[in-house]
Specification:
19-stranded mixed sheet, three-stranded mixed sheet
């Protein structure tokens, strides 16, 4: 309730700022009973409390900033016109409540809507050794040692321990199922994060002039610097060449692929187009046979490794593809039109999917039901 009171206070401040800003320009324009009623309604505790009743923990800081940025761009000359002021004040004041109810950046819904609760994925993976043996990991630490192979698993992360002999240089595969995640430290010290429904094919020990691995799905690398031995990542869409850097790869079958650079420098080559070099904050989007190099918000594409999903104007279909893998659920669209609706917002990776679904349903665009791990989305 403490956060609700804070939001209530901030919302009232926004509304009062709107009124004051307009009054400073044209005082006589506010002599209107409808505007007075709107102001009183919005400023009343009951009105805001009714809208806030669905929220237990919520910060309006980001929405407040976005709202102020929006109204700063409104030409002052438009405010001098009486009719424009009326229309703007109705819209702007109402926007306060829209920001409160709509923005996923702000909202963490905790109340039940009488649906099953679907919890997030967990540390879960299988390391398939070159000899065919499988090491399954979950939450408990362990050490696997057999013949020339010694594998440690601590706090959700695999690593190869001790000296790896030449007999074990053949490639192993780390497989992460839907609803799982895993980390690995390669023999050169490179750190790898694997998201749900992904795999990493790699040697227990690098040898030769290059360090090469193969991935599918969503993977983030912090590559140990070694200028004498370039690090190369093979994906279904092309290869990434690295010296020492942090970058993310998203390469799921039948979806657009993305290579996003957080820091350092990488080059992308699909053996069709000219090699593209990326600087920090840049991304290669692979759509069919088309390549697009662009500037992006890196957190939107690699924030998952730090425990947060970020979406900016992403289609509901794209968002739900991500959710299906992480929560290990099936999502069914009752109306195909829902797939193209776009949303922006943040979601804590380790919260139940119901938080997102409840927030989406507040937009009045859709509703949902859950049965036997199948989520059905309905158009309102």
């Amino acid at each position: 309730m403490k956060n609700s009171e804070k939001l209530h206070k901030e919302s009232k401040l926004v509304i009062q700022n709107i009124i004051n800003a307009v009054e400073n320009e044209t005082v006589d324009s506010l002599n209107d009973k409808k505007l007075d009623k709107l102001s009183n309604d919005l400023m009343s505790n009951n009105n805001l409390n009714n809208h806030l009743s669905n929220y237990e923990s919520f910060s309006s800081q980001e929405g407040y900033k976005r709202f102020l940025n929006t109204i700063e761009n409104i030409p002052i000359v438009a405010l001098r016109k009486r009719i424009s002021i009326k229309l703007w004040i109705y819209s702007a004041a109402a926007s306060v409540l829209i920001i409160i109810g709509f923005s996923l950046y702000l909202m963490r819904q905790t109340k039940s809507v009488n649906q099953d609760v679907i919890n997030p994925g967990i540390a879960k993976s299988t390391l398939i050794l070159s000899n065919g043996e499988e090491i399954t990991a979950s939450s408990d630490d362990f050490v696997y040692e057999k013949q020339n192979v010694k594998v440690e698993y601590q706090k959700g992360s695999f690593s190869y321990a001790g000296d790896v002999s030449a007999d074990s240089l053949s490639e192993n595969i780390l497989v992460v199922p839907m609803g799982g995640e895993a980390n690995m430290v390669l023999s050169d010290g490179t750190k790898v994060w694997l998201n749900a429904d992904s795999y990493l094919k790699h040697p227990a020990k690098f040898a030769g002039n290059t360090r090469e691995v193969t991935v599918k799905g969503e993977v983030y690398f912090e590559v140990a610097e070694d200028k004498e031995h370039p690090f190369i990542v093979h994906t279904p869409k092309g290869d990434v060449k690295v010296l020492g850097t942090g970058f993310g790869i998203t390469a799921y079958p039948e979806e657009n692929a993305y290579v996003t650079l957080a820091h350092g420098k990488i080059a992308f080559n699909d053996n069709v187009h000219s090699e593209l070099v990326l600087s920090p904050g840049e991304q290669i989007k692979v759509s069919g046979n088309q390549l697009e190099k662009r500037k992006v918000n890196v957190a939107e594409y690699v924030g998952w490794k730090d425990g947060e999903f970020t979406f900016h104007q992403r289609s509901l279909e794209e968002i739900m593809n991500t959710m299906q893998r992480w929560y290990n659920v099936e999502v069914v669209f009752d109306n195909p039109e829902l797939k193209n609706i776009r949303f922006s917002g943040d979601l804590k990776r380790y919260e139940s999917i119901n938080v997102l679904l409840n927030a989406l349903s507040l937009t009045k665009e859709m509703n949902y039901s859950i049965e036997d791990n199948v989520i059905t989305l309905y158009k309102r």
